[in-house]
Amino acid sequence: MQPYELSSPPDPMLGYEVRYHPHVHTRFSDGHGTYRDVLHAAARAGLHAVEITDHNVRPEGLAGYHSVGQHRVLLLVGEEIHDRTLLKGKNHLLALGIRQDLSSLAEGHPQRLINGVVDHGGLAFIAHPIDVAVPYAGEGDFSWRDWDIRGFHGIELWNAMSEFKMRIPTPVHALFYAFAFHRVARGPFVDTLRLWDRLLQRGLRVTAIGGSDAHALPARLGPLRRTLFPYEWHFRAINTHILLSEPLRGDFDHDRALLYRALAQGRAFVGYDLPAATEGFRFWVEGRAGVGHMGAPFPLKGEVTLHIRVPRPARVTLIHDGTVVQSWQKARRLQVPVHRPGVYRVEVYLWAWGRWRGWIFSNPVYLHPT
Fold first, then answer.
1. How far apart are alpha carbons 290 and 296 in whole angstroms?
2. Helix ranges restricted to H, the chain
3. What share of the chain is helix, strand, coil (3-state, %, to 5)?
4. Are 124 and 158 in contact (CB under 8 A)?
5. What is the CA radius of gyration of the chain?
6. Is pLDDT above 70 for 5?
7. Cα 264 from chain centroid?
8. 282-369 in CATH: which number?
């Protein structure tokens, strides 16, 4: 079988890029679409891989490659798990890469669930760590509560539905954004970014992902009816771009392991693809030890240079240990010498629809003294 065709040219040194969407709900829980709806939407949006994460249920027999017209989609099946014995908003965990339902492990402290996911070979990501209630819509606060945890792989840095909830303090706001999807997304919450930086400064390696939390919810206000929001809309917006060590082959077991290995290593970035495609972004480090990638430690020995490559000119910000080091207004290719150890990451903003909007959020590189 020929290597699976990627949407961006292969870049062997810096990774083969795939567009992956990690957080979707269907009728198996509280979503309103079928798995087939998700697959067709993913194909139309040009996704390479999509992961279904229904609440406390993991249906069998659905994972694999699926052909939709001329496009093949890698369908993965994880689970969004929370303790049903507690308040609904407590501690939702994305269990990615698991092969069986693990919701029975959710009762009690979330550390038990995290340990179980890891023990079963999965990746544990904290879903929508900061989330707000929308009382008039019956939507609660689903923020993560218990931070005395360890061993998790990362957090969902940017959740589209959490951001939508933040934008709709009144039904009038909800009506506006229901017909103006492109105006919803502005970037991850500032508090979520600060939380991530605090975790990183504690010495944790925390991988950031982005997704939609898509439900394809039907909404009604008087005579007006709308879907909030169709799967395809979400799949064309906030995604996780993963950089693989080799191309996808079209073999399910091989490609599944390849994708999860890269994600576990933090070789990924969050991209908002609606205003402009984020394919081709790269962030890496070079020095005497060779080349270092996002998610990996790298020795600060001699001259070390950070490299930033952006698909089109945009506002680029370099952040070191939670503090802005420097910003460039219309940058595309940057080489930045650095001399201090610590955690470095990149934020990129693009002017779209009348304001600066978050466009790309890299995972960190970790520079350590020799």
1. 12
2. 35-45, 110-119, 160-166, 171-178, 190-201, 231-235, 252-265
3. 20, 40, 40
4. no
5. 20
6. no
7. 12
8. 2.60.40
Question: Closest Cα to residue 297, out of 234, 355, 364?
Answer: 364
Beta strands 49-52 and 71-77: pairing type? parallel
**Tens-digit pLDDT profile for residues 30-85:** 999 999 999 999 999 999 999 999 999 999 999 999 999 989 999 999 999 999 87
Three-class DSSP category at 104: helix
- 187 dihedral zone (left: phi>0; alpha: psi -120 to 50; beta): left
* Cβ(35)–Cβ(50) below 8 Å: no
Q: Is 7 in contact with 45 (CB distance < 8 Å)?
A: no
Length of the chain: 370
Domain 16-272 has CATH 3.30.830.10: no
The closest of 251, 329, 265 to 297, measured between CA atoms, is 265
Q: First and final CA of the chain: distance in angstroms? A: 44
**Residue 302 exposed, middle or buried by CB count within 10 Å (0-12, 13-18, 19+):** exposed
Q: What type of residue sits at position 196?
A: W
Structure token pair of residue 320: 């070191």
Q: Are 152 and 129 in contact (CB under 8 A)?
A: no
Spatial separation of the C-alpha atoms in residues 338 and 304, rounded to whole Å: 6
Tell me if 29 sits within 8 A of 86, measured CB to CB.
no
Q: Return the bridge partners of 258, or none.
A: none
Separation of alpha carbons 139 and 92, rounded Å:
15
Enumerate the β-bridge partners of residue 214.
24
Q: Which amino acid is at 166?
A: M
Domain range list for the chain: 16-272, 282-369
Identify which of 59, 20, 57 has the alpha carbon closest to the alpha carbon of residue 42.
Answer: 20
**Backbone angles phi and psi of 85, in degrees to 5:** -80, -10
Tokens 């070191």 found at: 320
Helix (H) / strand (E) containing 281: none
pTM (global) more than 0.70: yes
Distance CA 169, CA 136 (A): 9
